[in-house]
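Entry: Methyltransferase domain-containing protein
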Amino acid sequence: MPMRKTTVICPVCDQPLGYKDEASKTLLCDSGHRFDAAKQGYFNFLTGKGTNFLEDTSAMVQARDAFQSRGHYAPLARKLSELVQRYHAGTTLDVLDAGAGTGYYLKEILDLTMPASHDALALDISRYAMRRAAKLPNTVALVWDVWRKLPTADASRDIVLNCFAPHNPSEFHRVLRPSGACIVVTGEPNHLNEVIEPLDMLSVAEGKLAALQEKFAAEDLMHIETEYLTYQMELGSEDLYNLAFMGPAGHHLSPETLRGKVQSLGQQLVTASFGVHVFIPKR
């Protein structure tokens, strides 16, 4: 039986990878490099290579899933879906989510845009996050470092999504089709400002947009627009715990200490504030 080709490329030799059989559990290239899916459905391309970055732990991913499942970031997911529809008119959608986490935004985009068919690639260094993303239909979930060459073919993606994740604009440009768009989400300086200090979270630096524009322009990606989204979230103690623990601060926060902090705070009205930036290849 001939291999069923994909738009994923081998991280060893850059040749196209295909599924060995209909079960979609093994990826092979013509050079014989083989990658078997974990029992949870994701593929680990970092085996033997490793990364200098810390993966989000199982507890951090559980906290993110719990927070997102409560709908606190649903307005952001809707905004992303609007922009995908604005910048992609086709009935099929080939999308790469670089730094996908649990796949929450990717799932919401697919649910809201309802393309006739789609081919999705979700990348993250966390195995625990990719276990969840692998459950999405027609989605290949890969454990991979976004700073490295992205394991997908040149000009293979209509949309590159990059939410609260490392930016690799040279690779984003390479994998985008000429008519494609890269959508980048960053936090604004007032994002979560009511709880940053009491929960020992990391703050958002000023000047994000200017730095992004310069970095992406150097790789021939032109800034087209930025939409700002700000709203208030009513968060109880469990929400506050998950909010703090799901992000980068989760690598150094003590769960026991954090529980004490959120209990003393009680229910809070917290600002969510995002910049949603759209870049397209220079023509």
